[in-house]
Amino acid sequence: MTDAIDYQEIFREIVSGFTDADDRGDVAAYIPELGKIDPRKLGIHLTTVEQIHYSFGDSDEKFSIQSIAKVLSLTLALKILGKDIWTRVGVEPSGSAFNSLVQLEYEKGIPRNPFINAGAIVVCDILVSCLTDPKVELLEFIRETSGIPTIDYCSTVAESEKRMGFRNIALVNFMKDFGNIHNDADLVLDLYFHLCSIEMSCKEIVQAFLFLAADGINPVTKTTVINSQRSKRINSLMQMCGFYDEAGEFAFRVGLPGKSGVGGGIVAVHPGKFCIAVWSPKLNENGNSHKGMKVLEEVTTKTKFSIF
Amino acid sequence: MTDAIDYQEIFREIVSGFTDADDRGDVAAYIPELGKIDPRKLGIHLTTVEQIHYSFGDSDEKFSIQSIAKVLSLTLALKILGKDIWTRVGVEPSGSAFNSLVQLEYEKGIPRNPFINAGAIVVCDILVSCLTDPKVELLEFIRETSGIPTIDYCSTVAESEKRMGFRNIALVNFMKDFGNIHNDADLVLDLYFHLCSIEMSCKEIVQAFLFLAADGINPVTKTTVINSQRSKRINSLMQMCGFYDEAGEFAFRVGLPGKSGVGGGIVAVHPGKFCIAVWSPKLNENGNSHKGMKVLEEVTTKTKFSIF
Amino acid sequence: MTDAIDYQEIFREIVSGFTDADDRGDVAAYIPELGKIDPRKLGIHLTTVEQIHYSFGDSDEKFSIQSIAKVLSLTLALKILGKDIWTRVGVEPSGSAFNSLVQLEYEKGIPRNPFINAGAIVVCDILVSCLTDPKVELLEFIRETSGIPTIDYCSTVAESEKRMGFRNIALVNFMKDFGNIHNDADLVLDLYFHLCSIEMSCKEIVQAFLFLAADGINPVTKTTVINSQRSKRINSLMQMCGFYDEAGEFAFRVGLPGKSGVGGGIVAVHPGKFCIAVWSPKLNENGNSHKGMKVLEEVTTKTKFSIF
Amino acid sequence: MTDAIDYQEIFREIVSGFTDADDRGDVAAYIPELGKIDPRKLGIHLTTVEQIHYSFGDSDEKFSIQSIAKVLSLTLALKILGKDIWTRVGVEPSGSAFNSLVQLEYEKGIPRNPFINAGAIVVCDILVSCLTDPKVELLEFIRETSGIPTIDYCSTVAESEKRMGFRNIALVNFMKDFGNIHNDADLVLDLYFHLCSIEMSCKEIVQAFLFLAADGINPVTKTTVINSQRSKRINSLMQMCGFYDEAGEFAFRVGLPGKSGVGGGIVAVHPGKFCIAVWSPKLNENGNSHKGMKVLEEVTTKTKFSIF
Question: In this structure, are strands A265-270 and A274-279 parallel, antiparallel, or unpaired?
């Protein structure tokens, strides 16, 4: 049914409707590599579960997907460890960033969910424990899941993040003190920083995340990435915790599970229907792509596909 | 379409599947009136937007709906004040209860969302400012919305809550110190405690909440309770913030927007399809009805109606 | 020995040394009565344990002693209840004001010390429990301790504080929720607000506090106010917790146990030697009298009487 | 005058008065080296400013002085940098350990005082910035200050602390994120862990700290360690912040500025009179030597030398 909608036309309408007022926000600049990106970039890609593709603008250009990658590392950890993972990290939204540390202290080093930094670091620790060569095997998993063998880390970005990642070093050591990090802090962070450095285009992101719109099965490769129950768990986690301190606003405006990254990318999933990725580097005050949010909001408004 | 499903049969299956292991948790007992309830009570009621009714057990028996009522006061405040309400209360999940006070301090007396106690108290303050006789007019609104003229406060429960409500008195005064409560603290709390004391049956709750499944229009009375956009806002808020510290778990297990109360009631909405209410007084450690969660989980599993 | 020092001359030197730069800070204005005080007022009074008096300026003019009075209520509670009081309130400094609520939550409603608001309120609760007519008996105790029968509450100030005291109402109810307030919140706060409204001159304060310089015995009236051990306890508490978030700075600059109030008064004790009170209404950013701190610093510098 | 007191006799009385009830608490065991110490060790040494020595028990045996050393690093930093140091670290007590992180976050990475771990780490960062070979020069300073050329680090203890010091690694990186650590985190921690590993006997500690009892001048070597004003600052800091969450209790029971370490040592200073060090490895629940506290309390009680 969904293929009856001309998303291509919808994208065109949305973008042509942008005014100067929409050209706001700032490109993330805490590491030099992100700051260099052309702020005018705009890419959109949507693929339905029936594998019909719609795209717009810079949808084939690779960018730093940053926190979007945390969904893929979680998928692998969940596949390996199953529900035991939830003894190490929670499934609840986290309140404001300010509270993250006091919350971590109060809850004895157990992060609230796998998408805040502390939680994604615990997921990396789990992968380091379970895999022989974590960096290589995680990349292989992402390549297989997406069916795209050229996906890769950007070591320049990973190194930059490592050099500036004092708060993340603090987090991993704080949790290690509570016994919730089992491996060497440097090893865990090396995996974490590489994870965040992955570069993909909107089209590639959609291909890698399409299994979440299809009960865990990648419709392209026909392989089961993860079982249906766990696919549902990941979607509900993206719904509740995917947008930092703007999860409630995103739920209202877009009404779909999704995940954003400071590189300006956002991926969203309509279970049973489609997966969509948008990229526009300028971020709003909550660290989410300003135009990316706008595009997704308009798509669900025009198609009436919000789950609410 | 939804009427094709025999919910009656599904309810029967679910309840007959309950084992001794499901008979756990404790009835809320912080006020005497709640502690006296027969813990074996179990009521379920579902009405589709086409107004087909399915019910089970004690679905016609009134009970204290407690925090479920916060959705109705919010609806009225939103109807009156529109989006200006969001300058007084946020739309984001709140993290753990422990953090509520430090969060309130850090965010200068602005509660995270209208369903935590502090937020529901601010909503009551707004109603006290806007209405001539808040207690009477709020009740009238709920009676009209539901089309049930017999819905009423329970003054015994309201008085009991007032006598024990030290933390709520602390909250209202703390926010008053920040300038986010504009009326006399006692007046605001009187409305708040009365709101929480409302008694309704599962069937009545469904009738009062059905507009949220039908874009803001009550299908029974054909009247517009609130516009479509605001109905969507309320649903997204219930999704993100309706279950205290178990919102993520509920999103995964049930996958529908909903709201629980310590009286053992839960209401959930499937936008475009139906509204369902369950009542079972024994609460799990997060203060949500143990069997209520279970029933809703099974309903969405068996009907595959989870939004994820 | 101490009588050999000409404090009168020292006071004159200090005050004549004040420059325009010292005329800074703001008079407390959160209640109208305090805001009306002439900011140029300056009073100093020192009495040695041998009862030699030295005074300067407006030392005979009564002003609102505010938090200075908390030492006197503590003295009475300690006299009545003995060390059992320490199960209800701690003896340690409290860190910044920001933390007071989270600390209170973390420590289950037990305030860190009897001089922060929460602690002084608990002390009032203890007095309400132990006394038949707390307001009358507390005043009598203060009159007896000082030997000054005219000391009195200022009901205008007490009423004003009550009208604006939302944070204190929050505190008392928050602690009541934890079970650390045993009486009606309004009764406790009525005593608390009256306590803070007491009006005394510098000379009268010194007379009331002189027992702390003399092992618990008022050298004027020769009566034992409290035993030597408890007098030492009160002095150590003033040393550690008497100056809000400036206790460390005061310890360094003045080096004597003391207590300040937002009315601009400060009392300090040199155990075995003297008691001194200063009054100057302009407060620094920590809520302590700017010139009051300066006078005390100079006195200890010039007399080399700092304990460090 | 002080030499008139027979401290030797007082020590004997105190120790002979110990009962089985005093033999409680646990030796610190978070690093193996500390856990191996014979818990029955007991050493006391007191030297007056006139250089009269009194000692008891194991007063000549070296032990790990741990946090006591933080006073010496602060002394060196204060000597080099002067009051500019107070832009990097505060002078106020810190409230409970629980709050340290939220406080650090709230106060933008500025620790409350130089004796909590975060503050001592900032002091080490200052030394790393100012010195060419910090570890060597700090040790030289301590040797000169004390006049004892054999004082040394214990590299085994330093290495152990480093291996287990996750919370300290978290702290240094957290502060680096706020810009309050200027050097490489590993370099700073290396100095910090070595500082805490210093081994000294009670007698040696007293010799190193005697300048604080004598206005900044070591009476033995006649050299000025630091000026009188700064010596007073250090004493007031020890008074307010020297005993973790037991500063208030220590102020009351002992009434002297002092500093404890988890190795079971405590040093206390009576400005103008003497310096005393006690060592007994069993710690109370606040991490301070149980018998050490007891000895100091009895000494001030018997000599009536408490400052209160």
Answer: antiparallel
**CA distances in angstroms from C124 to C135, C140, C241, D49, listed in the order given:** 10, 15, 18, 45
Q: What does the alpha-carbon distance between residue B10 and residue A207 come to, in Å, rounded to a whole number?
A: 37
- Is residue D270 within 8 angstroms of chain C, CB to CB? no
Whether A264 shows a pLDDT value over 50: the answer reads yes
Strand partners, D260: D266
Give bridge partners of residue D54 from the DSSP assignment: D46
pLDDT of amino acid A196: 96
C265/C278 Cα distance (integer angstroms): 6
Q: How many CB pairs under 8 A join B and C?
A: 45
Residue B266 to residue B243: CA distance in whole angstroms = 9
- Write the pLDDT tens digit of every residue in A164-189: 899 999 999 999 999 999 999 999 99
Residue D135 · residue D189 · CB < 8 Å: no
Residue of A99, A103, A248 with shortest CB distance to B241: A248
Please give the helix or strand (H or E) that residue C275 lies within, else none: strand C274-279
R_g of chain B computed on alpha carbons:
18
B108 close contact with A: CB closer than 8 A: no
CA distances from D221 to A150, D1, D53, D210, D224 (A): 72, 21, 15, 11, 9
**What DSSP string describes chain D?**
-GGGS-HHHHHHHHHHT--GGGS-SEE--SSHHHHTS-TT--EEEEEETT--EEEEESTTS-EE-GGGGHHHHHHHHHHHHGGGGGGTS--S----GGGHHHHHHHTTT--S-TTSHHHHHHHHHHHHHH-SSHHHHHHHHHHHHHT-TT-B--HHHHHHHHHH-HHHHHHHHHHHHTT---S-HHHHHHHHHHHHT-EE-HHHHHHHHGGGGTTTB-TTT--BSS-HHHHHHHHHHHHHHTTGGGHHHHHHHT-S-EEE-TTSEEEEEETTTEEEEEE--EE-TTSSBHHHHHHHHHHHHHHT----
The span from the CA of C256 to the CA of C234, in Å, is 12
Question: Parallel, antiparallel, or unpaired: how do β-strands B63-64 and B199-200 relate?
Answer: antiparallel
Query: What pLDDT is recorded for position A104?
Result: 85
Contacts across the A-D interface (CB distance below 8 Å): 45
Q: CB under 8 Å to B70, separation ≥6 — which residues?
A: B114, B115, B120, B123, B195, B196, B259
Q: How far apart are CA D299 and CA B99, in angstroms?
A: 45
Return the pLDDT at A244. 80
In the structure, what pLDDT confidence band is assigned to residue C211 with cuts at 50, 70 and 90? Answer: very high
Rg, C-alpha atoms of chain D: 18
**B289: which DSSP letter?**
B
Contact list, B300 vs chain A (CB under 8 Å):
none
User: Where do the domains of chain D lie?
Assistant: 2-303
Euclidean distance between CA atoms B175 and B162, whole angstroms: 18
List the structure tokens of B84: 């200006």
Q: Which amino acid is at B14?
A: I
- State pTM to two decimals: 0.92
Quick one: which of B276, B241, B281 has its CA closest to B261? B281
Residues of C marked active site are found at: 67, 70, 192, 244, 262
ipTM of the complex: 0.90
Nearest to A95 among B112, B232, B251 (CB): B112
What does the block give as tokens for C82? 């003995």
CA distances from A81 to A74, A215, C112, D140, D270 (A): 10, 19, 45, 54, 61
Q: Which residues of B touch C185 (CB under 8 A)?
A: 166, 169
Q: Are C13 and C23 in contact (CB under 8 A)?
A: no
CB C88 within 8 A of CB C180: yes
Closest in A93, A98, A232 to B306, CB measured: A232
CA distance C98 to chain D (A): 8
User: Does domain D2-303 match CATH 3.40.710.10?
Assistant: yes
